[in-house]
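Q: Can I see a sequence and its folded structure?
A: Here is a first one.
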Amino acid sequence: MPIRKELRELLACPIDKGPLLYDERSDALYNPRLRRRYPIVDGIPYLLADQAETVGPAEHHRLVGRAAGPAAPDGLNDVPARY
């Protein structure tokens, strides 16, 4: 169950307090600066540092390297241009 965009815009990484990207494919929030992914379970984001998973280079590339605008491929949305 995806979380609403309005809620996603309010959420921040618990470690660096920066914005998070939403990955529709894995239903998770992603911090590209730290390469940490936070799960969303039953529509509830689990923004606990100890529950985040580290993302490897290939998955990081999928999440940020191929994103292009508002209709990003692979279900990735809300990608700021600086990543």
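Q: Show me another, different protein.
A: A second, unrelated one:
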Amino acid sequence: MDPMVSIIMPTYNSSRYITQSIESVRRQTYLHWELLITDDCSQDNTRELIKQFQQIDSRIKLFTSKVNGGAGCARNNSIAEAKGRFIAFLDSDDMWAPKKLELQIEFMKANKIGLSYTAYQKIDSQGNSQGIITPPKQTTYSKLLYGNVIGCLTAIYDTAIVGKKYMPTIRKRQDMGLWLDILKDIPHAEGLSDVLASYRHDSGMTKNKFKILKWQWAFYRDVLKFDIFQSSYYFFFYAFNGFFKNKK
């Protein structure tokens, strides 16, 4: 039997898009998966929608946070419950291509890869393509410090190689923190050029660029504990490169 993939999905007031996200998981050609959803105290009907899916698919599991702790805490709760060898990530407004798991797991097994990622497309609220993000074929701990090239919705890690790893319990940049933690233990992560996921892009993000930069600065200083000189060095490259990702 194929190894199990545990899919980690945090939710918070996700009723608008979560049905599409879950359906994209259920359409996977790779069948041996579990979808672990931790709801972070939603106030809409998110949990009701998830329970409807549970009635028709026993692979879907729902957990509820006692307090709103943010996406990182919700993901960590699901990781703790995960039984799969492979840990994959999908947010509740994003989607996967049907062969996403099949192609990526085959790639990881054949090449003994501890952490992998893929290309993905950005989409608007209506699902229209807004461009392709093509990551480098390979990245390392030192390279990732300059900017996060691993889309969270595309990432999978192999617990048989790196063990079970968790995200730092911060409100932003949790995924980058996890990838760096994994890359301390393996030489590199590897990417597929196939476009295997769709990231729902906030068209209003431009006005929030200063907030993003603030979070990234805090990540270097408070999470990685870099001094002012290290932080300034990497922050400069992040600010320069972070909004000009390679597109097809």
